[in-house]
Amino acid sequence: MKSEKNISKLTPEEWTAFLNGERGTETFSGEETSEMREMRDAWELSGAVFSHSAANPEKAWAQLNKQLDETPQPVQRPTRHLFRRIMQYAAAVIALVALGITGYWLTRPEKSIEAQWAVQQTVMQPAVIKQVTLPDGTIVSMNANSRIEYPKRFSGQKRTVKLVGEAFFDVHHDPIHPFIIETEGAQIEVLGTSFNVSAYPGKEKVEVNVRTGTVRLVSTRKTEGKQTEEILPAGQRGWVNLSDGSTSRELGVAPNYLSWMNKEIKFKNTPLSDVFSVLENTYHVKVEGADAYIDTLRYTADFETQNLDFIIDVIGRTLNLKVSKTDDGIVFAMKK
Predict the structure, then answer these.
(1) In the predicted model, is pLDDT for residue 163 greater than 70?
(2) How far apart are CA 262 and CA 280, in angstroms?
(3) What's the CA gap between 136 and 149, in Å, rounded?
(4) What is the DSSP letter of 28?
(5) Between the CA of residue 41 and those of 8, 21, 32, 185, 222, what are the distances in Å?
(6) pLDDT classification of 156: cutoffs 50, 70, 90
(7) Cα(211)–Cα(147) distance, rounded to whole angstroms?
(8) Bridge-partner residues for 288, per DSSP?
(9) Which residue has the higher pLDDT, 158 or 122?
(10) What does pLDDT average to over the chain?
(11) Which of 61, 77, 186, 217 is least crowded, fewest Cβ atoms below 10 Å from its Cβ?
(12) Residue 49 to residues 13, 33, 34, 54: CA-CA distances in angstroms?
């Protein structure tokens, strides 16, 4: 019986003989293992074929070890320590990304005021009245042919809007952030109050009538030696003369400054020229006299929510005037 030798006990010379095919597995204990087959395949791939007589055991062994080192090895799982290191790096990266995103949102530039104004704009058409609620809760009732511009949200120290036309403001009280209205030639500043602003294009003045609270009216026109600011308490009115930039005020509000909202009209010995102006502003129809004499006539009456046809008929009958409706509006003339 041949002696068998355990594979783990092979010498370099015996390994060389095995790899060169000069010795089979019959001299080893057990059958050829997968390790032995991998070693033989690696040896054959190396292209080194030696005969027994010419074999150099040390050189063959060195080549075998080199070939085995170059053979791809199974990927080992990372150790617990390595896994912990990877998780620490991942956490650091996530923290940096989160910090960067937070920094961007905190330091990003705000949208330009011009862009915000362009989006938030309400334009009223002729004979249309509408109520608008601003971002701070301020309620604005807008007369016809008016436009208000305001930001999508108020930021900074002031709440600023722009008005062309006429509107009644019921301003949300905020003592820290003054409410500013910019019009042609004037600026109105309040903290929390209700008042009416009339600033139609082409008019001679910007007029403010204060219902509650206090309003600061400032002229934005450059003028020398003239009053350019008024403090208006409740029950007073003030205005900016656009011709020279001066300001004025008087006790009492204009008698019909809210007629465009509530259709309540009161005339007391009022010149017809002023009567016509009130009717135009309330009903959005041009009303005029046929000559200058008619404008000087005076009229006294109260109307509550009556329609325009009823009012002009009463005025015509009272003053014995002829009333005509044209494509341009309503004309009062003397009867022949």
Answers:
(1) yes
(2) 15
(3) 14
(4) B
(5) 19, 12, 13, 98, 101
(6) confident
(7) 22
(8) 331
(9) 158
(10) 78
(11) 77
(12) 14, 21, 21, 10
Alpha-carbon gap, residue 330 to 323, rounded angstroms: 7
Residue 244: both structure tokens together: 């020279």
pLDDT for 208 equals 97
Contact 188, 208 (CB under 8 A): yes
* Per-residue pLDDT, 223: 76
**137: exposed, middle or buried (C-beta count within 10 Å: 0-12, 13-18, 19+)?**
exposed
**What is the rounded CA–CA span in Å between residue 232 and residue 213?**
9
Least confident of 7-16, 76-85, 212-221, 268-277: 76-85
Cβ-contact 208, 237 below 8 angstroms: yes
By the 8 A CB rule, do 167 and 143 touch?
A: yes
How is domain 113-251 classified at the architecture level of CATH? Sandwich (2.60)
Helix, strand, or coil here: 222? coil
Grouping H, G, I as helix, E, B as strand and the rest as coil, residue 164 is: strand
DSSP string, 263-318: -EEEEEEEEHHHHHHHHHHHH---EEESSHHHHH-EEEEEEES--HHHHHHHHHHH
Instruction: Round to whole Å and give the CA distance between 142 and 163.
Output: 10
List the domain boundaries for the chain.
7-70, 78-107, 113-251, 259-334
Largest distance between two CA atoms of the chain: 156
Give me the phi and psi of 59, to 5 degrees please: -65, -40
What class does CATH assign to 259-334?
alpha beta
- Take residue 82 and report the two structure tokens written for it: 């390595």
Q: Which amino acid is at 181?
A: I
